[in-house]
Design goal:
The protein has one domain: NAD(P)-binding Rossmann-like Domain (Rossmann fold, 3-Layer(aba) Sandwich), CATH 3.40.50. Helix content is 45%, strand content 16%. It has seven helices and seven strands; from the N terminus they run βαβαβαβαβαβααβ. Strands 3-2-1-4-5-6-7 form a seven-stranded parallel β-sheet, with helices on both faces. Strand 2, helix 2 (40-52) and strand 3 (56-61) form a beta-alpha-beta unit. The protein binds NADP nicotinamide-adenine-dinucleotide phosphate. NADP nicotinamide-adenine-dinucleotide phosphate binds next to helix 1.
């Protein structure tokens, strides 16, 4: 297995949920983590927790919808640690709504965060990983990247895009440059993600969701598994769902 000791790991969306849990777990394993999101107060509190446990963390306040901020994030990681071993594109939003409600701002926000943010960060990291002839890009897609659900037309479209982008990256960057690419596809996870749902029409019409969400730490474990695989082995795709989630 690959040791995580001293690996330089950039995590977007580290201020809550899956990103927070992943930062804590990888830092505990010895990785030097770069924490990115908009809520700097939360990132500072996370950094303090990690350092109190003997870990190493850097906070870079970042809005991933801004290309220049994504480039500054990657540069800050390079300046601090001299390399980027792992980029975890985890930041995401999910304001589900009915298509008929035409909530254009929310649609654009999902495209900007869930797709463009991933492209900006990945595009900034690729040249460094090519120079290193090594690296690992972990994209947090979703079960929504494999199938559609009611009220998720745009969210599922963004996650399908990330699943496709991940496979395309893997096909090119692995054989040509030794860079690994992993697509993580969580089912329902207990995080703040659902709090952004505001469309009254969706709330009224949505079918009851019956699964018992799993913990963000469960997804963090999947990411740890992918990152710590032997360097010649790429864990290309991981779908992790609550046992009682049907689809
Ligand atoms: N929870 C689930 O059931 C589930 C299932 C499948 C996939 N996922 C995916 O898992 C990933 C993490 O979500 P989560 O469940 O952990 O939800 P969460 O707790 O709401 O975390 C979302 C993270 O994204 C960050 N973010 C949002 N907009 C951003 C922006 N413009 N710039 C930078 N960061 C931004 C948030 O930080 P700030 O607000 O501080 O910027 C936060 O840290 C997402 O990609 C989501 O689609 C979640």
């Amino acid at each position: 297995m690959t040791s995580l000791q001293d690996l330089s790991v950039v995590i977007t969306g580290a201020s809550s949920g899956i990103g927070d849990a992943t930062a804590r777990l990888l830092a505990k394993e010895g990785a030097r983590v770069v924490l990115a999101a908009r809520r700097a107060d939360r990132l500072e509190a996370l950094k303090a927790d990690i350092e109190a446990s003997g870990g190493t963390a850097l906070v870079v306040e970042t809005d991933v919808t801004d290309r220049a901020q994504c480039e500054a994030l990657i540069q800050a990681a390079m300046d601090a640690y001299g390399r980027i071993d792992v980029l975890i594109n985890n930041a995401g939003v999910m304001p589900l709504s009915l298509a008929e409600s035409v909530r254009m701002e929310e649609w654009m926000q999902m495209v900007d965060v869930n797709i463009n943010g991933v492209l900006y960060c990945t595009g900034a990291a690729i040249p460094h990983m090519i120079s290193q002839e090594a690296g690992h890009i972990v994209n947090v897609s979703s079960v929504a990247g494999r199938r559609l659900f009611f009220g998720g037309s745009v969210y599922c479209a963004t996650k399908h895009a990330i699943t496709a982008f991940s496979e395309g990256l893997r096909m090119e960057l692995g054989p040509r440059h030794g860079i690994r690419v992993t697509c993580i596809e969580p089912g329902a996870v207990s995080t703040e993600l659902f709090q952004a749902i505001e469309d009254p029409a969706f709330k009224e019409a949505a079918p009851e969701f019956k699964a018992t969400p799993i913990a963000p730490e469960d997804i963090a474990e999947s990411i740890r598994y992918a990152v710590s695989a032997p360097s010649g082995a790429t864990v290309a795709e991981v779908l992790v769902m609550p046992t009682d989630q049907v689809r």
